[in-house]
Amino acid sequence: MSDIHAPVKDYTADIAKRVQRMFNAVRAEQPLWRNNMLGYADPDLFQPRREDDPDRQAGKAETSPYMRAERQCILRLPKTSALVFTIHSYVVKS
Question: Could you tell me the pTM of the whole model?
Answer without folding.
Answer: 0.66
